[in-house]
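Thread: quick sanity check before group meeting

JM: Hey all, I'm pulling together slides for Thursday and realized we never actually wrote out the predicted structure for the chain we discussed last week. Dropping the sequence here so it's in one place. If anyone has concerns about the input, flag it before I start.
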Amino acid sequence: MSNTRSIFEEVSTEKPSGDAPKGGLIDAGRNDWRSGVAWWMKILFALVALMVVIGGLTRLTDSGLSITEWNVIKGALPPMNEAAWLIEFEKYKTIPEYQLQNKGMELSAFKTIYWWEWGHRQLGRLVGLVWFVGLVFFFITKTIPRGWKLRMIFVGLLGGLQGVVGWWMVSSGLTGRMVDVASYRLATHLGLAFIILATLFWFIMKLNRTEMEMFQSRRTRDNGSAQLAKVLLVLAFAQILLGALVAGIDAGRGYIDWPMMGGEFLPSESFDYTPMWTNFFENPALVQFNHRMLGYIVMLVGVFAWFKTRTAALRKVQIGFKAVMLMLFIQMLLGIFTVLYAAPWHFAIVHQVGAIFVLMLILQTLFAATYPSEQSVRG
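JM (edit): ok, ran it. Output follows.
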């Protein structure tokens, strides 16, 4: 017969003896690997972000065509003596960039642009090595759970594709009368780099949460805010591609007034090229105009998204859209100053780094709306 208890009896606050309760089977034995894989992907993310910056500087210093061959293994070593340097220099002298733009360049100047391109390619090799070594380690130690093997392999496939696209881009400037790489190929190369960054960042955010948390959070997702973040993400990515077109044809140095362009809203020469569709890729007037206009649209959508979500139930969503709007404003100012000062390399590269931050903040906000973390009712 059980003993009756008074309703006034004080309940003990002592914790029961024994081990603390454990999570369900969905998380059993899976927490150790998450931290390790997350750090592996964080290293990859940092290296890819650095590669985007180095790649931007390589373009701004007109160094991208200094290495005229693609040797994945042999090319890892730079010229080791003066004779080797002269051989590389002679190869460079055969391409249009030297013959039409840099004729008479001295060996010392060639070495400068060579080191930029070599460093960019070497960093790409390092990214591939870090990915391969990490993947092999996690496979050997059998610390990859269901559902993540293909994701981890997918990251490497994207990296390999990026290497192929990089050479496809460089090869466009080695023949004919091209003194730079084709702008649309540069946009493809940069766009894929940002896709890799976005993929890694999204995976990292997922790895920082347990599978049980991810499963439970779907019940409280904010679909409206997530849709706004997706719209911003698409617009920001399109703006990044337009920025690559601007960089590819040096369109940022042609019209250095603002808010007008050469004293006009839409420069009169915006559709001078034939066939007409080439103006959208090769005409500096129209390319810069499109980049400016889309920048205004992204800023307005960012303000609208912040206004619509300022009373959202999820505080991280509120903060996220506010941070996105602030970063978009900073990025717009950077773009204006880059134009006004005729795109000096230090302004241009900061503007490119700003694009990375915009992408990260939008993705973080999208994640907060799609997979909300628990929050206290208080405050």
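AS: nice. The chain has two domains: 31-208, 219-379. The chain has twelve helices and no strands.
JM: adding both to the slides.
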